[in-house]
Structure formats: structure tokens, C-alpha cells
UniProtKB/TrEMBL annotation:
Residues 292-486 form the MmgE/PrpD C-terminal domain. Belongs to the PrpD family. Residues 19-269 form the MmgE/PrpD N-terminal domain. This is 2-methylcitrate dehydratase. Monomer. It comes from Conyzicola nivalis. It catalyses: (2S,3S)-2-methylcitrate = 2-methyl-cis-aconitate + H2O. Pfam families: MmgE_PrpD_C, MmgE_PrpD_N. The keyword Metal-binding does not apply. GO terms for molecular function: 2-methylcitrate dehydratase activity. Its EC number is 4.2.1.79. Keywords: Lyase.
Length: 512
């Protein structure tokens, strides 16, 4: 890996394109380096993971609405690829315009907040790269091997940007790193020249910078749409760049560019790691998926909460937990991010509101810890049900849960050493009889360094569990057999890299 210095340049400094970050990203995308077997295996895992959470979302309102928009835009075959034009959409048969397939599938994948994650200077769900890249692969008649190379690029670029450039510190949504990474991945897929990918990356970034209000206060259904929008913009940016259209330049470093006015300003200085020419793209191996449908910083806390009842005698009795008065207070000592984004440090009253939206509860660690402690489990539907959130005993205990930033957990959260990087913290539970229970957890059980790391077996089990009752058994087995042959799939076979459900609700009508 090579570190590339990035700063703001005045217009009269005339920064050459070859020295611009967008160009260097494009060079990585255009490098025809082989994908290692380890990375290929993980790409297959993440496609299974995406399909699992998308399947579980097929009847949820955001996915239904986005799918309906795609259905209104069926693909029109055009020679010479008349038999392959268009892309598939999760849940339904047919072929649709690739940007709208990317949109619908992106929403389905993101709706439950239940797929992979990478956290560093910024936050990300790099699996969001897969829907737009796969949609273009199907539309353009690419093979499984070509798709693997493209997804490796998408993960590499997004994770490298996330390691170096913080967006959330300036209240810019994390999908601003997704637009460029998806565009780069599509560039790899199509074998585009560096110049074309450069223009696409710039346009994709320019059109996907938005504020983090989508993840603040009363969190709306747009949370699921934001990354899908970035993927759709990446597809459209590549299309325009292939037609010879150019982008604002320099998009990152310009004196009126993204860094100068949306991020750290004109004195900014970053070092962005990118693979050198001929170096394999391995960043996907730094990411990790979710065992539970909740914000990633909640994963370890769910695992700790569901284990506390068996680990500590004072908490073994369910009535003690159900009867809120048995507990005086619960304090979660954790990282800056957990405290200020999903904890009490956010100062969002909605995080303690039993009538709050699912999206809001998903970003409330006081709620999540309470329910996991009481139930000894976490479920992607039951744990968010309105009647579950409104239980009086839960509300009473929930209001006793607060978070505090701990400098050491913040340091570990930002550590570059995988062996000490942590996303958990220390819990202190004070009972009304004066007993204090202290425990801690560093990483989620499913994390590569956790108690039960996810491997192919766990990804398949997750898919089977979430597809149960949604897909026919034969469809489940068909998909699993196909996806595990990914590197050898022909272009025609790649069209089967989707799932079809027997019956789905009709989508609402809009303008079209």
C-alpha cells in the first residue's frame, strides 16, 4: 500500500490530474491485478449476506416502494445485447434498467441495517457497492470472474477512503465515499480507461454529498435509500463519462471542492492508502458483517447483554430484569462514536421514545441493550415491534440506561492495530441492593476476532434463516448453489444471481 497525500489547492496552483485523488482511484480501478482466492471467497460470502438481508426486507415498505419504481422501468433490449439487456431485481422476475435495479436492490439490502461494515476515520457498509456493480454486470453481459474483480475494487476504494477521510466529523453522510467506490468498481467491471473512470468518480462524488440528518433525531425511511441513491448515481455517472462528459475538477482538492467546503477546510491534510500497481485488492478482508439487525456499534453490546443473565447470578432471574425496580442504573462506558451517535450523548430524546420509528430504535443503544438484556436475544422483527418497545417494564429499564465516553475505548476504536481495535466497552449495572455488576466486551461474537467468527457456514445459515417463509426451498438451494460457483459463472448464469419470491405486495403508485 502507498499513502497518497491529499490537500486543498488554490485554482492558480493548477494541480495536474495525475496527482489528484480521483485520478489515483481510477488508476487502481484500471489495474488488471488478479483477485486472490481468499478475497474471492469473502466476496461470495458478502453476496450471500446481501441476498439474505434483502430477502428479509422484500415485504417492508421501503423495499416495496423502491421495487415498484424499478418495475415501472423495465429494460428495453437493444442490439447487439438484446438477450442480456437489463438487470434483475430482488424478489421479482424480469429485467429492468440497471440504475433502477441498483436502486431497488440497494434499498432492499440496506433496509434492515443488517449487512457488512467497516469503521475507521469514517463509517461504512461496503456491501452497498454490490447492488450497482452487479446490476451493471448483468446489463452488460459480464461474467462471474469479471464481477469478482469489480467488487474487489469497490470494497478496496471505499475502505481506503474510510481509513483516511472523516465525513461524519463535518456531518456529511458516509455514502459520499460510496459513490466514488461504486463508480470505480463499475469502471473495473467494464475495463474502462483511467480517464473515463476519473470523470465518473468525480461526478459520483459531486452528486452524493449530503448531510447526516438522515441519521439524526427522528430517523426516516431515507436511511435505507441513501446508499441506494449513491449506487444509482454511480451507474449514471459512469454512463455519462462513457459518453465523454466530464466532472468538476479537482473534485476533492479544488479550492471550492468537497474538502475545502464540506470537510476539513483549506488547511486539510490527509494520507489516503491505496494499493500500488500490481498489488492485490484485499480491503474486503478488513470488513466484518453483522449477526444482529442493528447499528454495528450495537453488535458487541447485544452479545454482552444476552450473555449477562447466565454469567452473573444476580441477573439470572428473568423477573429481576422484567421488574425494573431491581436495577438502579446501567452505564455503558464506550467510544466517542457509540456515545454521541447511538448513545445518550446524542441528546436525541427520540432515542428514549417508545413510539419512535424502527430506524430510530436501530440507532438507540439504550433501547437495544435493554431489550437484549431482558429477552436474552435480538431479532430483526420481534425486537423492534411497537408492542415490544412500548412494554412498561422495558420503558422503565430503558430510561435507566445511559452512555459515557471512555478515552481508552475511543482510542481502541480508532486503533489501526486489528488486535486491539474495539467496538464495545464496559458496562456497570447497579442494583437497588447496592450490588454492582461490571463486565466488558471488545468485539462482537461474529467479528473475525470474536467468540464465534462468521465463516461460509454462518453466512449460509443467515441466508436460510432470513429466507425461510419468504422463498421456496428450491429457490433457496438454487441461489446457494449458483453463488458458490461465482468465479466460473457465464454471463447468462449471472442473470440468476438474484432471488424470486412466490408472492409479494404490490407497490404504491407515485408520479409515474
Amino acid at each position: 500500500m502507498k499513502l497518497h497525500p491529499v490537500r486543498v489547492y488554490a485554482s492558480d496552483e493548477n494541480l495536474p490530474r495525475e496527482q489528484q485523488l480521483a485520478w489515483k482511484i481510477a488508476e487502481v480501478a484500471a489495474d488488471p491485478v488478479a483477485v486472490t482466492d481468499e478475497v474471492t471467497d469473502m466476496i461470495i460470502n458478502r453476496i450471500i449476506d446481501n441476498a439474505a438481508v434483502a430477502t428479509a426486507s422484500l415485504t417492508r415498505a421501503p423495499a416495496v416502494a423502491a421495487r415498484a419504481q424499478a418495475e415501472d422501468r423495465a429494460a428495453t433490449p437493444v442490439a447487439p445485447v438484446a438477450t442480456r439487456a437489463g438487470s434483475t431485481v430482488f424478489g421479482i422476475e424480469g429485467r429492468y434498467q440497471p440504475e433502477w435495479a441498483a436502486w431497488a436492490n440497494g434499498v432492499a439490502v440496506r433496509e434492515l441495517d443488517y449487512h457488512d461494515t467497516f469503521l475507521a476515520a469514517e463509517y461504512s457498509h461496503p456491501g452497498d457497492n454490490i447492488p450497482p456493480i452487479l446490476a451493471v454486470a448483468q446489463h452488460a453481459g459480464r461474467t462471474g470472474a469479471e464481477l469478482v474483480r469489480a467488487i474487489a475494487t469497490g470494497y478496496e476504494i471505499q475502505i481506503d477512503l474510510v481509513k483516511a477521510i472523516s465525513l461524519h466529523a463535518h456531518k456529511i453522510d458516509h455514502v459520499a465515499h460510496l459513490g466514488p467506490s461504486a463508480a470505480a468498481g463499475i469502471g473495473t467491471l467494464l475495463g474502462l480507461p483511467v480517464e473515463t473512470i476519473f470523470q465518473a468518480v468525480g461526478q459520483a462524488l459531486h452528486t452524493t454529498t449530503a448531510t447526516r440528518q438522515s441519521r439524526k433525531g427522528e430517523i426516516s425511511t431515507w436511511k435505507a435509500h441513501a446508499p441506494a441513491f449513491a449506487g444509482k448515481m454511480a451507474v449514471e455517472a459512469v454512463d455519462r463519462a462513457m459518453r465523454g462528459q466530464t466532472s468538476p475538477t479537482p473534485i476533492y482538492e479544488g479550492e471550492d471542492g468537497v474538502i475545502a467546503w464540506l470537510l476539513d477546510g483549506k488547511s486539510a491534510a490527509y494520507e489516503v492508502p491505496l494499493p500500488e500497481k500490481g498489488e492485490p485488492k484485499r480491503a474486503i478482508l478488513d470488513s466484518y458483517t453483522k449477526e444482529h439487525s442493528a447499528e454495528y456499534q450495537a453488535q458487541a453490546w447485544i452479545d454482552l447483554a444476552r450473555a449477562l443473565g447466565t454469567k452473573h447470578p444476580a441477573l439470572k432471574s428473568v423477573p429481576e430484569l422484567v421488574e425494573g425496580p431491581a436495577i438502579k442504573s446501567i452505564v455503558l462506558h464506550t467510544s466517542h462514536h457509540t456515545h454521541f451517535v447511538i448513545g445518550s450523548g446524542a441528546n436525541d430524546p427520540q432515542k428514549y421514545d417508545p413510539t419512535a420509528s424502527r430506524e430510530t430504535l436501530d440507532h438507540s443503544i439504550p433501547y437495544i441493550f435493554t431489550v437484549a438484556l431482558q429477552d436474552g436475544e435480538w431479532h430483526h422483527e420481534r425486537s423492534y415491534a411497537p408492542e415490544r418497545a412500548a412494554r412498561p417494564d422495558t420503558v422503565a429499564l430503558w430510561n435507566k440506561v445511559t452512555t459515557q465516553e471512555d478515552a481508552e475505548w475511543t482510542r481502541r476504536y480508532h486503533s489501526n492495530d486489528p488486535a486491539e481495535k474495539a467496538f464495545g466497552g464496559r458496562v456497570e449495572i447497579e442494583l437497588t441492593d447496592g450490588t454492582v455488576i461490571v463486565d466488558e466486551i471488545a468485539v462482537a461474537d461474529a467479528h473475525p476476532l470474536g467468540a464465534r467468527p462468521f465463516a461460509r457456514q454462518q453466512y449460509i445459515a443467515k441466508f436460510r434463516a432470513l429466507a425461510d417463509g419468504v422463498l421456496d426451498d428450491a429457490e433457496i438451494e438454487r441461489f446457494l448453489e449458483l453463488v458458490q460457483r461465482l468465479p466460473e459463472l457465464t454471463a447468462d448464469e449471472l442473470a440468476g444471481l438474484t432471488v424470486t419470491a412466490p408472492a409479494l405486495p404490490a407497490g404504491p403508485k407515485g408520479l409515474f
